[in-house]
Structure formats: structure tokens, C-alpha cells
Amino acid sequence: xxxxxxxxxxxxxxxxxxxxxxxxxxxxxxxxxxxxxxxxxxxxxxxxxxxxxxxxxxxxxxxxxxxxxxxxxxxxxxxxxxxxxxxxxxxxxxxxxxxxxxxxxxxxxxxxxxxxxxxxxxxxxxxxxxxxxxxxxxxxxxxxxxxxxxxxxxxxxxxxxxxxxxxxxxxxxxxxxxxxxxxxxxxxxxxxxxxxxxxxxxxxxxxxxxxxxxxxxxxxxx
Length: 222
Hints:
Blueprint lengths: L7 H14 L11 H8 L3 H14 L2 E4 L3 E4 L4 H25 L2 H20 L2 H19 L2 H16 L10 H17 L3 H30 L2
Antiparallel strand pairs: 1-2
Helix pairs in contact: 1-3, 4-6, 4-7, 4-8, 4-9, 5-6, 5-8, 8-9
């Protein structure tokens, strides 16, 4: 299927980005430019421009004389990223609380009711989707394009790790309680409490991921 766009390299970058996030292009895998050009029915120029975009985003790494490889996220990367994104999303929650109108609170109420329903039913995939919508809503309400940009960039890197922190024992209900604490602070118009609750929520995600990694390692060594 041929890609057609006024900005072809942007469309190619978007296509490859989604394939990376979906795991079709696995972490560490080599991107064969000839094969990609044939598969996407494009020339080398837009492909190389697209690869530059993804390298700049941190989704690919470029090795001189070898080419591009899908980036791999290490435990150290996660240890370094989570405290940063916790600070940033905490600030987003602070600013969202300051800006939220009654209509915004009502819309967030619906999202949190959806989140609670998915948690009660143990629907992890749907919970992730509702969770993402809530985080996006807070970032939108913060109305700070710099925060949104940097958070978005870091989230792309985290998506590479294909994180499954909700599979840690008890994490689903813990995550729900954390979200409700953030929302309660927002409804109370307590900016500082919302910021602290959101920061705690993100840092506990990292703790849950360590639990999942330990459990998986234990199973492998049995």
C-alpha cells in the first residue's frame, strides 16, 4: 500500500512509530532501509528523514556505518525517567487544579467512574485506556505547552518498554486509589495536594514495575 501525504516523511515516521509501539519492530531490531522502502513503496529520501525524526525522539538509535536500530529501554533508563516524569506530571496536576472549571470536574468525574468500573471488573486493558485518558485530561487542563511537549517525549520512551505495572499483585486497586486521591485534591482545589498525589502515583508505578520484574526473574530461575 503506497503512502501519500503532503509531508511524506511525517507519515512514514508516524507509521514506523506505531509499529514500534505495537512491537512489530522489536527493541534492538535493525531497520533495513531497502526492505522498508519496498514495503512502504517510498524512496530513500523520505525514509531517511523519517528515521532522523525517530532518532531525535529517542525511539531509534543510529550507529555510524551500521544504520538504525529500535531503541531498548533499560532498568536504569526507567529509574532515571520516572522521577523526572513524576515531577512533570505532578506540576501538570497542580496547574490543572488551578484551571479546572465545574464543567471540567464533571468531565473528570465521568472518566474516574469509568476507571472504577474497569478496576472492579479487573479489565486491565480498558483500565489502561481510561488511565491514559485521565492523564491526558490533566495535561490538557494544565494548558502548558512546554509541560505537554516534554511529558509527551518521555512517554514515547516509556512506551518502548511495553510496561505492564498493573500486573503486579494488588497494583490495580492501588493505582485506582492513587487516581482518586489526585481527583479528590483537584475537587478540593488543593493544587499542592494534587501535585504531591500525582507525583506519588508515578513513582509507585516504578515500584510496581520492579515487583513485576522480580516476579518474572524468579519464575525464570526456578
